[in-house]
Amino acid sequence: MTTTSDPGGGPLAGIRVLDLSRVLAGPYATMLLADLGAEVIKVEHPVRGDDTRYWAPPSVAGESAYFLAVNRGKRSIGLDLASPPGRDLALRLCAAADVVVENFRPGGAARLGLGHEQVRAAVPHLVYCSISAYPAGHPQAADAGFDAAIQAQSGLMAVTGDATGSPTKIGVALVDVLAGLNASTAILAALRRREQTGHGEHVTVSLLGSALSGLVNVAQNALITDTEPGRHGNAHPSIVPYQTFETRDGVVMVAAGNDQLYRRLCTVLRRPDLADDPRFTRNSDRVRHRTMLVDELAVEFLGRTTAEWAEALRAGGVPASPVNGVLAALRDAGSSAVATLRHPAVGPWETVRPGFALADADSLTDTPPPLLGEHTDEVLAELGVDAARRAALRARSIIAPTDVGAADAIPVSADDTGHAQDVPTPTTETECR
Q1: Is the Cβ–Cβ distance between 352 and 330 less than 8 Å?
Q2: DSSP assignment letter at 316
Q3: By residue range, what is the domain housing residue 173?
Q4: pLDDT classification of 8: cutoffs 50, 70, 90
Q5: What residue spans carry the Polar residues bias annotation (predicted)?
Q6: Which residues contact 177 (CB under 8 A, 6 or more apart)?
């Protein structure tokens, strides 16, 4: 185990993570580890960097909002992994790390000399995490995958949207986020096991597996009934009432998730008759008579404004909310969800806190996302690479130039053999190459 971090910096202080990933799933996982105190070194192409540096607008001071969202708490080293010297330096970084995270297209890391078996031979204690589009054994296991395509393939789109409308993609790359959460969870378990055995672990996470497991009760319903679930819009297939209702001036979401909450709802609505009606007494009854009950409730909700209903329902102990916009929700949450950090190019900037908190430790790194290659000299010096050697590597474009900084190059991408190819600015959420 390394001991480069401040022991007071969080529960993962002393853990070093080498982040060979890009875009969303991998960087999100490593950012969560950084929030917990791990030292994260992000390896990027020395000129192009992570694809998301160019996924703009919006951007600020040359830094894309997308990149800022998932890369705080990291140091960036610009390194050409396709060159033998770059690969050798990457292997030295692996040897000094506790965790490696990569999301190359299957086989790509191995072709670069950085695959699990190759690295494990030199660093048997390493926790090595591979994120791919498809799990091993799947017919498409060797394919690349985008979040949007996996949403469609997994059935997630099929159960999202109005019953009479078209299947709908969720408004955020949720599959990638789930994969990142799965990766960070499994990495923590592997580190715990290493404490017990002294041995490393190969953690594998797939976008499709994350999407399918994330379907939870919907997937279980399909398996039990051997029937396609279908779409329910803003309603719930197994709970009634659990949906939006139109009000005098807008929409309110009501989540009466059990019989007690339903009775509270009837009290707020001043409709005790609906609470005592045998057709609606139990949730299973309400599901069977969904249309009749919803029609009754819909008339009542038209009698007040959204704000009035939200206040009355909360006062009555019924979970409910207006349908907020994203910015409105963030502003409403305030410092409980949003923090301000200082960035070397951007200056003070706001970012969203992680969805967890620890009572006895900070759960948000105070280190901003790095400029491209910002820490190249610092990290290589720690490896024992002297200034003369760094200058020679820089002259051959194997490491980042000293003036790369904010992303301002022509957007290009590279396949997993390192050969650059011009591509248009990406418009989809992510790709595991």
Answers
A1: yes
A2: T
A3: 16-215+334-395
A4: low
A5: 424-433
A6: 24, 25, 28
Q: Give the residue from 265, 293, 324 where a domain finishes.
A: 324
Residue 260: which residues within 8 A CB-CB, separation 6 or more?
none
Among 172, 168, 186, smallest CA distance to 131 is for 186
pLDDT in tens, 343-362: 988 889 899 999 988 887 77
Token pair recorded at residue 270: 């001043």
Q: Are residues 64 and 174 in the same domain?
A: yes
Catalytic residue among 50, 147, 176, 416: 176
The answer to whether residue 418 scores a pLDDT higher than 60 is no
Has 176 been annotated as catalytic? yes
Q: How many structural domains are present in the chain? A: 2
Identify the DSSP state of 54: G
**How far is Cα 409 from Cα 129, in angstroms, rounded to an integer?**
30
Q: Could you give the count of Cα atoms lying within 13 Å of 123 in the half-sphere of its Cβ?
A: 23
* Whole-angstrom distance, CA of residue 168 vs CA of residue 217: 19
| Contact (Cβ atoms closer than 8 angstroms) between residue 125 and residue 96 | no
CB of 364 closer than 8 Å to CB of 425: no
Q: Which two tokens stand for residue 59?
A: 């951007």
Q: Residue with structure tokens 């590279």?
A: 414
Partners of 338 in beta bridges: 352
Whether pTM > 0.85 for this model: the answer is yes
Nearest to 74 by CA among 29, 138, 124: 29
Are 357 and 387 members of one domain? yes
| 306 and 377 together in one domain | no
